[in-house]
Structures are given as structure tokens and as C-alpha cells.
Queue: 3 jobs
Job 1
Amino acid sequence: MHDAGMQRWHTIIEPFRIHSVEPMRSTTVEERAARLAEAGFNLFNLHADDVLIDLLTDSGTGAMSRDQWAAIQRGDESYAGSPSWYRFLAAVQTLFPFEHVIPTHQGRAAEKILFSVIGGPGKVVPNNTHFDTTRANVEFTGAEAVDLVIAEGRQPDLVHPFKGNMDVEALDALITDRGAANVPVVFVTITNNSGGGQPVSLANLRAVRAVCDRHGVPLFLDGCRFAENAWFIREREDGQQGRPVPDIVREMAGLADGMTMSAKKDGLANIGGWLAMNDGVIAAQCRNLLILTEGFPTYGGLAGRDLEAIAQGLTEVVDEHYLQYRIRSTAYLADALDAAGVPVVKPAGGHAVYLDARALLPHIAPLHYPGQALAAALYREGGIRGCEIGTVMFGRHPDGTETPAAMDLVRLAIPRRTYTQSHIDYVIEVVTFVASRAGELRGMRIVDEPPALRHFTARFEPRD
């Protein structure tokens, strides 16, 4: 008989069984239209109970495992030196052997602490592409956030294995022009969320490391989706095929001087994160801010049970069966939409499928927010909540001016271990239906917006 191992079959099954379920509530198109108007056409303002398939974010929305829930029962809530802290620390340093690990309640807290210490007016922080809170925390200090992704990363329909790579020549030129003393850190986001969840290669990280070494500038990772990035390296980069995922993760970490992390993504937890580095002087300053804003350095704003859930999650996220399922199930959605003629970012990212709203809605000008219009339509027609990643999120500058973002996308972020194939098949039907009537959609205008991170709370209305 032939080997009956999983690799023989084309169907990628979920490497888990469902242990507990929660109900979902269906609504009518009329009900959703009313809820949408009440929310100011901003999907962040909706009640989650009014959403059928929630693809707003993969951050903290996944299902935890049986073993994570069991670990929660072991959580020790001692204020200082909890055993849960030491299990968390060991799990982090197994994959990311940085000397100093500072727990935070989530990734943006790590960013806030770090940039409060190293940022400031006159400074510039390059990244392949800053995501929303990273950019906001850089700019809040008066520093400038600069995106230096490769040109291929700004072309949604172009197939390239590592569209998240940083433009190394542009990085070298920026540091030379601005002066290394004014570049406190270089960041690389893995995977590159704003650019379609695209991965960064080890070769590119080595090249960025070489530039940083030449100029004497530290390199940090935004590691939120490190395991997905490592899987893409394993599958796509020459010489990496079949290599154990934890080994790839450790090599990525070894090329950096530190990292920020939201454990709500590839920590497989509902809350938590950390800031890690090798520089003891900066770490001491960051710990002082942590105590002021987050908590004692052995809990950092987290309960002991949260530290336990993250520690267990870090062992599960590098499991090859999980990652194969995770990446393939995301590609399943992207491939189906592409086959139906819906413009998507190619190739599929790890955590989300990105619809190219600018290509689908060419009659809507970028400053009329085609991404927001498309996201609203998906909710109205099928109860699906996605997230605009475009001119609403990135078009406004610190001086108040506004220009179109590099791309206008709608991200359909897939929570980890949460939805089944039938849920995704439903998403395919709804997106295809909306795309077939794309010409009927109208642009949006902002009627109220905050001074920063406007996409979270701004209110819109349709244009005539």
C-alpha cells in the first residue's frame, strides 16, 4: 500500500477538532443598512453581535487551544516574580534570544514605550511599511516615519515571493542623507501587513543588517506574524526548504537587535505582547516607562494567566501542521476570488486576503475612499466586516494635508482557528456578488474625524 500520510492529499484539513462553539446571529440587508448608517459607515463602530463573519482583524480574535485554556488555570497572579512570568520569558527567549524581554499588554504599548525613549523631533524611522499604530507612535514623538518597501510591494497584482522586502539601496541612501545619528532604529515588519501580509526573505534581512552595521544603526523587527513569515521563507526561499520553522525564527531574531511584538497575532493569545532588545541602557529606560504606564517588569500590564496563554501559544504557532493549514486556508480564499475575477493582492499573504479596491472601483477617486466604500458594501450585503487599508488609514499627514495612499485595499483578516471552510465559501459568494455590482458603489466623505488614527473612529457618509 502507498503511504497514507497527509502530504498525499490535496485537501488541507484543520489540524484540530472543535471543542467549544459560540453562536452567530444572522441579520437582513435592511437591518445591516440601518446599523451601518448608525455607525457612520465605519465598521469599527458596529456592534459585534450585528456582524456575521468578522474579518476586521486577526489581532486577538483567534480561538485558543485546549492546552492554552488549561495553562490559564495555572496562572499565578503574584505581583512580582510570578512563575507564570518565568514560563513566559523562557518561551519568548527560546525563539527570540534577546537579553532583555519587557512584557506589555499589547504591541502598541511596546511601540509607545520604545519610541518615547528613542524618538523625537528631527529623527527618522525607516520601515518596509509602518502599520497604523507604529506610524502613529513614531509621529507622536515628532519623528518621521518613512516606508521603504521594494517597488514590487506597491503593485497589487504582481506576483513576487517576497513583496515585503525592504529597498536596501533606498535605506542606505536615507541613512546617508539624514545622518546615522538621526536614525535611532531601522524597523522591518514581518509579515508586511500594510502591503498585503507579504513576507520578508532572510536574504533581505541579511542585506538590511549589513546596511545597519555599516552605519551603526540598530535593527528591530515588528514580529507580530513571525511564524507566518518563517513558513513563507521555508516554502519560497532557496536553501530553506524543509528547515524547521523554529530554526528560521531564531535566525531572523539573530539578525536583529530587538523587536516589538503583539502576541495577539502569532502568540495565539487574546491579549499581550512584549518589547525585547539587547541594549541594556535603552532597556533600563524602557522598563522605567513600563512601570509608569503598564506595570511591574514581570507582568507588564498582563495577568499571570495571560502570560501562560502566550507561553503555550508560542509552542503551538511554530507547529508545521498548523502553519500549513493557516497559509493554505488563506490562499484558498484568495485563489477563489482571483478565479472569479476579483482583483486581490498577489500572492496571498499569511493572515489575510486584500481586495484591491482601487482596481475594482476605478470610478471612485482615491480621496473619495474606495476601500471604505467597498468595506461598507460587503457588510451591507453579507454581514462581513473587513478593514480599509488605504487612504483613510494612511492618506492624512501630520501637518493635516491629505494625499492618496500607495494602494487602496480592503483587508479580510482571518482569525486563527476560528472559521471553517463553509464560512469562507460564504465570504467568497458575498465578495463575488458585490464585485459584480461594483459600478453601483459610490465614494464616501468624512464628516467627522479625530486628529490621529482616524480610521478607528471617523464617521462617513456616501457621496451623491
Job 2
Amino acid sequence: MRRGLLVTADGESFAGVSVGVDGIATGEVVFNTAMSGYQEIVTDPSYAGQIVVMTAPHIGNYGVNEDDKQATSPHCSGMIMRSLARRHSSWRASGPFGEYLVESSLVALSEIDTRRLTRHVRHRGAMPASMGTDVDEAELRSIAANAPTMAGQNLVDLVTTEESYTVPAESEQLGRIVAYDFGLKRDILRQLSGHGFEVTVVPASTSADAALALAPDGVFLSNGPGDPEPLRGPIESVRRLLGRVPIFGICLGHQIMGLALGARTHKLDFGHHGGNHPVRDLADGSVAITSQNHGFAVDLWTLEGSPPPRRTGIPSPDLLPASVLTDFGNVVATHQNLNDGTLEGMSCRDIPAFSVQYHPEAAPGPHESISLFSRFAQLIAAGA
């Protein structure tokens, strides 16, 4: 086996073996706590610019297949795992994960001490790293130390569609949706079309006027990678769409909507990446286990002009403002992350718009939040 090595920007090194292609990959190293769904994870455009560390010990157990792909090819910079399965077993499989990594030209390492690496990232925060095969440690250390951080990076331009395209409704058509592609996953399109909507997917740079010219019954703001604050064009487009058409945003789309409402975002220490994040519905106190992949969060306290309360112990609802006033009326916090207390959802009370920070389509992850697509359909029907 070929020797492999990963070196973080602060100089920590992790040895392993190569299970992908030869070469050097650089990106922000983050860890994902999902127990399965490795194919959806590597093909999620939200991971552009990142090296993904899987905390589950065995990866590749059930192989790969065409249906689980969220894009035509992987978008993450590299893949790190403790152990790549020698054999795969699933009636759905079309081949082994190891072969897929090589065919997709992805740099990937196995036999890495992922427990130590995860603890390092939790303690020091997500940071740039460089990885490769049969390379000098000093070279990787220099590359990692000089790599840009995720803050300030516009990665949406690397993953958005170049041209608009339309996906027909899979059932009786209930309306037409314009979906902004900031890094759109295939299973999100399946959910929208499965709920009876014809979906026209448009590039991230599409203006509000161009979107409205398509006569949509609603606008969807997708997931995506990188820092939301540099996305001035999409933020302005969403600001001009608010109040004119029902809007539903997820993940990066949630952050863009928050910025369009006048709030600010901030970078999380090591982000939320996995399929097991508990989120509390602030309306009734119920808790859903959610799929998440993001490194930034919306801070509604910035609309109040005051810093957020300091957290002590288990996160409580008072860590979030109950209601804030924006140029578009009142906005309320609707969901909260129970690991760190950050905002996971918000809703506009005076215009038809809401958003969540997580991935309700569950690719991969639990299906507890799929009902949000039905809520979007109800919001559109109410305005018809």
C-alpha cells in the first residue's frame, strides 16, 4: 500500500495509507458524525473546499450506487477514514467505494487515527489541512500553513449550475418553483418534484427580476458551500424577492435569507456535520434528529444590536431572541440546535418566508424533517 499523510495548518500530522488517487489535496478539515451515507457526503456540493473526516470506523460496507449520488461527481477536496471496508454487501451496490474514489480522482486516506484527528479539530477548530501520498511532510506542512481559511471564501461559483434547467413534477402539478442552485443536491429536487412542483433550477447569480419573470409560485434557496457573507449578488436577489413570493431556504439558503433580512452570520468553531444533530422546535418543544452540513450560523441578535447571552449548561431557548424587527416585519426563531444553542430555523411573520439551517431531504440522514416540504407547499397554496 502507498503511504499517505495529512498535515494540519497548525503542524499536526496523521499517517495512513492511500485508498484514492495519487496527488495532493488541500482544504478545510472537518469531521462528519454520520454512521452511513458516505456516498451522499462526498458528492454533496456543500463540501466543496473541505477535507471530510468520517468518525464512523468502517466506511464502504455497502458499496456505491447511482441513486445515492447527490451530484455527478465528488465535490469535497479529500476523504479521510479509519478503515475502508475490504468487501461490500448490498443488493443496491454497483461497485466498491474504493474503486469509486479512484474512478472519481479523489485523494483519500485510510488507516488514519480519526479519533485523534476529530479531537484535534474539536479542540483547535476547523482549519486548513493538506494531504497526499508519498509526499514530504515538510511540503504538506507548508501548503497547509499557507492555505486560505474558509471565512471570506465564495465557493458557490464553483458548484452552481451554468444554465437553467427544469425538472417536471412527479405527481399532479401543484405549481412552479424557482430553485436557486447554491450547491443543490439531487434528493432536494426529488422532494420538490415529488410534492407536485415543476422546478426550474437557476444559477446563483440569477437576479430577482429574472426569477420573477419565470412566474414562480414559490422560490427555494438551496444548500451550498463556503462563507455566505461574500455572496452579495444572491443576498440582494433574495432581499428583493422577500414579500413578493413565498420563500423556503435551507442550509446556505437559510444563511443568505438571514443576511437579506439584515442579520449577520458568524463562523462556528468546527461546524455541524452529520446525520444525528438534535434540533428543538421552539413552538412545541419537540426534538427532531437532523442532517446537517455547515460551518456558519445566523445571529439574530445582530438585529437587536446586542451580543447573544452567554451559554451555561444545556442550551435553553433564551439563547435566541424570541422575535426581532426587520425591514420586512417581525422574524421569530423557530428551531434551536441542542448541542450548542445556535439558531436552526426562523420564520417571517408578516411575509411568506421561512428557513432552516439543516437538510430536511435526509440525504443522508433521518427523515423526521421531510414535512417541511409540505409546509412550503401549504405556504404556496395559501397565497394562490
Job 3
Amino acid sequence: MKDQFKDIRAYRVGWILPFCDFLFAFPLLGIWVWRTTKGIRLDYLGDRKQIERDIKQGAFFMTNHRDIVLDSAWLSLLLRCRYFIRPFIGIGNNLFAYKWIEILVRFNRCFVVKRGAGAHAQLENAKQLSAYIRHLRERRKSIWLAQREGRAKDSNDLTQASVLHMLTLGEKDFFENVKTLNICPVSITYEYDPCDYLKAREMQLKRDNPKWRKRAKDDVESMVTGIRGKKGRVTYRLTPSINPEIDALLEAHPEYRDLPTHDQLQHVCDIIDRRIHLGYEIYERGTDFDAYIESRLALIDIPNKDEAFLRERLIEMYNNPVVNYKKAHEKSNFSGIV
């Protein structure tokens, strides 16, 4: 591997990785499944055989983002057990509160997504990351990346155009470059989000002080809470590559090849969003859901606590996926998916 990737690439560990998987990672992840969920399920939206063919080509798994650690860790576990693949995982360096965290994750097939730099440095970082991802895809390696920088605090999962733009830097034909990634959107649904009250707290803090910023220990708290907290039922739903849908879009609208980049980006973001929204698992809320919301509200301890605002934010987190799911199904006309 070229030296240009030294500071971001996953560490090359050869036979050590599967050894660590079966001796440490898998047992730990299994314990978290047993202690914090009512079961975790890998499911499919569309033609399962086509999805499996896409995976054999090396898939770019782009997902919505609920939990800092477990979203990618559990998907990696499920794929390892069913297809014996382990995707490379993109992790923001803002989560490296301690050096040992970076060392640990890079030994576990994680590469670094650099954040928090000036405009010029951000561009150079994006070019480096884009080149590294292309390097992995040329070797037909599978990759996981969230659809946006950070988690959608309100669970309104929308792909960030800047993420997709970063992945396609330096290439002239935007749509063909996207197709080389072989993006296979994945929906992640937790029945209960253990970090819901932390997200609501953050939303009020930002509302009251627009300059408020999370500290490193806040991310650590979210990581620990996400791992240890109760999640109920958990579903990962794979979808096929978006490449046929891109081809169909361009066949119907060949003029899209000449659109400005931001418009092209939005068309692909819309495809990814629709797949993720179609793939949600909608869990029925019992009569005790109001009591659950009140119990989460009681965990929030901040100055000038606005209970009405916080309650509304908590309810919104659980309602937005349902709203997006219904909209996606009303608009969908692609028989290969639904």
C-alpha cells in the first residue's frame, strides 16, 4: 500500500484479524446482543440472490446511523457469520478521545475519516480518503460508511451530499464513478435507542447556545451508553446495488449527465434515502410507550430544562422513521425493491 495512506488506512494484520475476531470480538459482540437486545436480525429488501451477487463483487454498505460503535460492529459480525466477509469501516477521528482507541479500531479494519480542519485541509483530507476508498474498491473490498457525518439526532435519515461528493472527487463522469463504488444501502432499525435522551439533551443545549460544542468525553459517554443500553429488537436490512437504478434514471433522463454536480449528487442521494426508508422495520409501540418517553425525559439533567421541548424531540426521534417509511412506500414504483 502506498505511503500516502499511512495515516488513515486500516492496519494490515493478516491472520491476526480472524484470530482476534473469534477469540475476542465475536464473543464480546455476542454478549452485547444477549444483554442489550431482544434479538438481532439480518434481512433483505428485494432479490436476495442479487444482493448476494453484489456482495461477492465487493459492496459499499451505506447505512443510516444510530449508534457510534454498534451500527458498523454488528453489521460486520452479521456479514462475517453469513458471508465470511468483513468490511472496512470508516470512523471519524473526532471519536479518538484517547490514542488507544485509534490503535484498537485501526487494528480492526477501520480507516480514519479526518474531520475538524480548515477549508484547505478538509479538501486535501477528502482527496486522500477518496483515493483510499477507490484503492479498496479496485481490490473489490467491501466498505461501510454512514450516509452522513455524525448521527441524525432526530432520526430523519437523509444522505449528506458532501459525503457522496467526497467519495467521487477527482473523477469526470460522476454517475459512472458512483457505480464503481457499488453502493448497497442498508437500513438499521433499533426498537429503542439507548442514546435517545443524550441526543435530546444535545438538541436543547444547541438550541439555547448555538456555539455549544460536544467535548471528547461526550462522545465517550455516547459510545458507552450505546453499547450498554437496552435496544429491544434490532434489524439490519440489506438492499441491492443502486447501479441498475442509476442506469434506469439515465435511460429515462439522459440530460442528467450534463446537470451541475450538486443536482447529480441530489439524484443519487434520493435513491439511497428511498432505499433506507423502504427498509426500515416498523415496530409497534405498546401502550407503555408514553411511560417510556417520560422515563427517558427523567434522565436528562441540564440547566433550564425545557421538558416540553425535550419530550417533543424524543417523540420525534421515533416518529420520523415511520413518516419516512410511509412516504417511501407511497412513492415507490420500482418492482425490484418492493
